[in-house]
Every structure is written in structure tokens, then in C-alpha cells.
Fold D-methionine transport system ATP-binding protein.
Amino acid sequence: MAVISLKNINVTFKQKKREIIAVQDESIEIEKGDIYGIVGYSGAGKSTLVRTINLLQRPTSGSVIVNDIDMLQLSSKELRDQRKKIGMIFQHFNLMNELTIFGNVAQPLKHSKLSKADKADKVNKLLKLVGLDERADNYPNQLSGGQKQRVAIARALANDPEILISDEATSALDPRTTNQILSLLKQLNRELGLTIVLITHEMQAIKETANKVAVMENGTIIERGSLLEIFTNPQKPLTKDFINTATNLDEALVKVNELLTTQPLAYDEELIKISYVGADTAQPLLSTIYADFGVTTNILYSNMEILTQTPVGIAVAIFKGSVANRNAAKTSFSDHGVVITELQGGTN
Ligand SMILES: Nc1ncnc2c1ncn2[C@@H]1O[C@H](COP(=O)(O)OP(=O)(O)OP(=O)(O)O)[C@@H](O)[C@H]1O
């Protein structure tokens, strides 16, 4: 069931005589329990699109349905109540420096009907959930960036939201802290059934957490699908760029190209990219490629990772042999579901 359904959303900003189209006729459906990653470069329209979910940004046109409620039809009081079910975290944490950690997490409960003791109990449970129960009396400036984001997450969960929007929440953090925060988000998704919308310019963050991905450019979603589909079969150049960065393939290709300038391919060699799904897909084929087709291989780069419980591999190799033999080997790989891309050479 879709918990978030945005249909034909347009958002236009008027600036003096200029009109900026931030989101153009875009629709997206997010199911309960999804961790839906939205990736794109700065200015692509990610924040604007996602901020229409809780109407922090009102769309110029289109419909916003959250939990079967038409958000655009609500009174201001009804909207305030619905917004409580949608938590948000941001790149710069947005904590109140004059309040303690406890005070920050208690902030959204200010007008709640809970008794003082129940509020305290709730805040303490949330701090425990994010691993900061011993820092309740500290102030934000006594915490690291990762700890501050944990406080922001606890605060975002104070009203028991069903949806959490994460807008570049790990962009200001180092890689290790980023992974810790992403693990916490995955844990919350698993344990609380929280639906998470994750906006980022880093495909790496999406790779670690999301089950679905949308790629945005110039106010529209140019490609979308399951994490596995997007990683194994990206269609658009921008998506390929993001994937190559997230799998370190772009760095590897720079090194491979450097190598090939000093040791150019021979007339009977070609550089091949091999992409496959499943741990035992490519290895058996590579191990018998010489016996089966008289083609030798030299693997220059290889990477395998587990995406949503599925092994996904990429390798870059030089295939050496006659044209007919190489073609027969490549056809056999393709027949076994391995995607072969010819990168260089292979004319003879
Ligand atoms: N309040 C606003 N007034 C005018 N223009 C805006 C406003 N908010 C966003 N924009 C413009 O809309 C476009 C999309 O911005 P948006 O912030 O949604 O992109 P983004 O993909 O989230 O990028 P970033 O990660 O840098 O925020 C940009 O051209 C931006 O300048």
C-alpha cells in the first residue's frame, strides 16, 4: 500500500521576472516500510519535491496523499496534526543550542497531552534507542556531529511518526559516522516499521540503506526502480555516473586507463566490463573460458557487494583471443545473464 502518493507535482518559484521550475509534473509512490532513496545533484529538485509531502512546500499544482489523506484539503489544525506523523532530519541537525539533549528531544512533546513523567519516560526511551541515554544533560555543542544527528533523529521520532524524511542527513558527516547513522536508520526501519525517504547526492548512502531509488535531474525523476534494478541495469548516463562512483568503478577505470597507456592492448585483446547478479554467476564462466573458448582473461578490477541480500558483482578484464573466440565467449556470458560491455579494443 502506498503511504505517500505524490501525483503530477509542479513547483514553480517566481523570482522577480524569472520563473524557476523546481519540480515539473512529477509523481512518486512510496510504500509502507520502504527506504526510498532520491538521488541527484544540487538543484535537481529533490528537497522541493520531498517537502511537498508534509506541505513545507506547497505544490503549485498536483495532489499530495499521505496515509490516504488529501493533505491539500486539510485545515491548518488538521495539517499540524498530520505533520506530527512525518518526522524530518536535516544536514545541519537544527538543534537548539540553549537546550540540553533531553530538552531538544522533549521539544516536540511540549503541547502533548502526556503527563510530565510520561514525557520524561518517552524522551529517555528515545535517547536510549539512539544510544545517547548517558548524554541527556549535555548541550549540543558538547556532542560530535554524529551524536547531534542522533539527537535530531530522537527528536524526529518523539511524536511516533510513521514516516521519516532525511534531507542530506549524513552529508556533513565523515564516512564512518555516516555509516553509523545509516545503520541506525535501517534499524529504525526494521524495528519500528518506519517508512524513510532519503534525499542525498551520494549514491553510496542509498546503496547502504535503500530498497528503492529515484534519480532526479532538472526537476524530474529520470529513472527509478528497485536498488537491484538500478545498480545492475542503469539506463541513463547520470544514473551510470552515480553507480560508477558508488561502486568505485570510476576510480578503477582511471587506473586501468593509465595502465593501458603504458601497456596498450594487443591486436587480439579487448577491455571488457562484466556485471552480474548472484555469487556464482561469473566465476564458473571465467574459470572455464580458456577451456571452452580458447580465450585468456586478465582481471584488472573486481568488486562484489551485497545489495538487499543479493550479491552484485562488477569486474573489468582483458579478454585475449581471436575475434571469433572472444565473440563466442561473450555470447556465452550474456546467455548466462552476465552483462558484457566492450570498453576498449576488440577491432581485430
Ligand atoms: N524558496 C525558493 N525560492 C526560489 N527558488 C528556490 C526555492 N527553493 C528552491 N529553489 C530552486 O529550486 C531548484 C531546486 O532546488 P532544491 O533545493 O529542491 O534542489 P535539491 O536537489 O534538493 O538540491 P540541494 O541538495 O542543493 O538542496 C533550485 O534551482 C533552487 O534554486
Observations:
- Residues 13, 15, 20, 22, 40, 42-48, 168 surround adenosine-5'-triphosphate (CB under 6 Å).
- The longest strand covers residues 2-15.
- The chain has two domains: 2-226, 249-345.
- The mean pLDDT is 93.
